[in-house]
Design a protein that fits this description.
- With 423 residues, this protein is an alpha/beta fold.
- It is built from 19 helices and 8 strands.
- It has helices at residues 3-8, 36-42, 55-60, 64-67, 86-95, 111-121, 165-170, 173-184, 186-200, 206-220, 231-251, 260-274, 282-301, 315-322, 326-333, 344-359, 364-373, 387-396, 406-409; strands at 25-29, 48-54, 72-78, 101-105, 125-129, 141-146, 149-154, 160-164.
- The strands form 2 sheets. A 6-stranded parallel sheet has the order 1-8-5-4-2-3. Strands 6-7 form a two-stranded antiparallel sheet.
- Helix 6 (111-121) links the parallel strand 4 and strand 5.
- It is globular and about 70 Å long.
- It binds zinc ion (ZN) (2 copies).
- One zinc ion (ZN) binds next to helix 13.
Length: 423
């Protein structure tokens, strides 16, 4: 796939928004680990660089250091990095007085501190991806844990992205399945984005939405091959993740690639961090959250018409639930909250359109079947949570982001269920 051409084709979009993507070069191919130095030179990358990795990702990228002949390479190697903290950002940042660029080897928790540190110090960044496990590469925000809170910070996307399909194919099956779970979530993201556009006039670009949709559909059709040690399949999964990553960079928000299911997974992660638990892989939690939301949205779609009223929130109970996170949540919901400007009459009038939006994506059953074939975890029990905790999160998670979802709009509806669905 020619990504540069794809990115260029979104310039001067009819929607009127400038679609930016700062990635200059993307290479996906077999054996590229031996050409990293060459690719960096072709992109005029500086030669005094910091290589950031953990022991696992460095081992997976065997040969990368040898490929950097002619470069002066400093190394910052973690033992294992599952949760990236502000301390990790500072550690990378401390190096940046001495080097001119960063090569991050790994995805997610390796990449995020590098993206933030490089943004703060205005240094070029190259991502060498070792697993097709998530799609946050092109994002302008980085999720970082500070104390017990995970917050997003303005970051940058890498100038150069390299993936060696041989390494992607060898990645642990659970990481590939997690990548699949992260992609299925795009269907909920697309529903929430369109519903918000309909009810609040939030900017929506059909072409960017199509990019997300194509990437998700493409991956769904490959469910059987996802966990195979197959270079072509692994490369295709990575390309789909890149496509949604680029879609998110086009709007400068995560809107095209993350909906209420991501917020619910974020709620789980925050609460588990407070309890000192090691969170699951991002895509594992997101995948199960997606199934829950698909099931719920399908329940809503059975209503051919609805009665709506203004949302009534018992703020004391809501803040109580958030405990030490309450202040952050309060800030997002005062002096007003996201549903305040929505006219209940409009919700009633536009309901048939909302039902059509829900029905425009693959069903719960189709997604469940595809996820099972892709080796994903699909139940609350499999991701190690209890039903009561998930029921709480189902009710309270929408308040931790100031972003409208259909889940939140459902609070304005009379008679429809507001509880965690059976699944
Ligand atoms: Zn557009
Ligand atoms: Zn995600």
């Amino acid at each position: 796939m020619d990504f540069r051409q794809l990115i260029d084709s979104y310039q001067n979009c009819d929607c009127g928004m400038e679609h930016r993507c700062d990635i200059r070069d993307i290479r996906v191919g077999s054996g590229l680990v031996n050409q990293v130095g060459q690719i960096l030179r072709e992109n005029h990358f500086p030669t005094h660089i910091l290589l950031v990795a953990d022991k696992h990702t460095l081992q997976a990228a065997d040969g990368i250091v040898q490929s950097l002949e002619g470069f002066q390479v400093e190394q910052h190697i973690y033992d294992e990095l599952r949760v990236a903290t502000m301390d990790d950002v500072r550690l990378v940042e401390d190096w940046l007085d001495r080097v001119d660029g960063v090569l991050a080897v790994g995805t997610g928790s390796i990449h995020d501190p590098s993206r933030l540190a490089c943004a703060r110090r205005n240094k070029p960044l190259c991502l060498f991806a070792t697993a097709p496990s998530m799609d946050g590469f092109a994002s302008y925000n980085a999720p970082i844990v500070d104390g017990n809170f995970k917050t997003t910070h303005p970051a940058k996307c890498p100038e150069v992205v390299i993936a060696d399909t041989r390494i992607l194919a060898d990645a642990p099956a659970e990481l590939k399945s997690a990548g699949f779970g992260d992609m299925v979530s795009k269907y909920i993201a697309l529903i929430d984005w369109q519903v918000s556009h309909l009810l609040t006039g939030e900017h929506y670009c059909q072409r960017v939405a199509n990019l997300t949709r194509e990437a998700a559909d493409r991956l769904m059709s490959m469910a059987d091959q996802v966990t195979a040690r197959d270079e072509q399949a692994a490369g295709a999964v990575f390309e789909s993740l890149l496509m949604t990553g680029i879609a998110m960079s086009f709007t400068g928000t995560s809107r095209p690639g993350s909906g209420t299911e991501h917020i619910m997974a974020h709620y789980w992660e925050c609460q588990e961090l407070l309890e000192g638990k090691l969170p699951n892989y991002h895509g594992e939690d997101v995948g199960v959250a997606t199934l829950i939301m698909l099931r719920y949205y399908e329940e809503l779609a059975q209503w051919t018409s609805v009665l709506a009223r203004r949302e009534e929130n018992d703020w004391d109970t809501i803040y109580d639930d958030y405990g030490p996170l309450a202040e952050d949540v309060r800030r997002l919901n005062t002096p007003d909250t996201i549903t305040d400007p929505i006219d209940p009459g409009e919700v009633e009038r536009l309901w048939p359109e909302i039902v059509a939006i829900i029905r425009s994506v693959p069903s719960y059953e189709q997604c469940l079947d595809a996820m099972e074939r892709a080796g994903c975890k699909t139940t609350i029990r499999q991701i190690g949570k209890d039903r009561e905790f998930v029921a709480r999160s189902f009710r309270y998670h929408p308040y931790m982001r100031r972003r409208l979802s259909l889940r939140r709009v459902a609070n304005m509806l009379e008679f429809v269920p507001h509880e965690l669905p059976e699944c």
